[in-house]
Design goal:
Elements lengths: L3 H18 L10 E9 L2 E9 L3 H4 E7 L2 E6 L1 H15 L8 E6 L4 E5 L3
């Protein structure tokens, strides 16, 4: 089975190529993407982080929840996260690993749990 670090490198390359080709959903200039691999006792993960996104593009506040207003991911950032997650998933093959797309602040935008 291919090492996870190779999968991670291919995901990075595909995200870079998609950004250069303009095939990612529209997003503000200055946003960067970080792809990280993690291993732990019960498995591994390939995670993408969206960095440098302005709050007003990334979030909106909704209602008065139990503890007051809460931040919710905007539709444009969810579309971007879904596309990034598709790129990760295209490299899964028969590998079992967790994958997620996060904001810089740690909000999970898309994820896949291995079965």
């Amino acid at each position: 089975m291919e090492p996870l670090k190779n999968v991670t490198a291919r995901v990075r390359a595909d995200i870079r190529a998609a950004a250069k080709a303009g095939t990612l959903p529209e997003h503000p200039a200055g946003i960067t993407f970080s792809v990280r691999m993690e291993t732990y006792s019960q498995g591994s993960s390939v995670n993408v982080y969206i960095k440098g996104a302005p709050d007003e593009w990334t979030y909106f506040e909704t209602g008065d929840g139990t503890w007051g207003p809460r931040k919710v991911a905007s539709e444009p950032v969810k579309a971007l996260a879904n596309k990034l997650h598709e790129i990760v998933e295209s490299h899964r093959g028969d590998r079992r690993f967790f994958s997620a797309v996060y904001t810089e602040e740690g909000l999970v935008l898309a994820c896949h749990l291995p079965r």
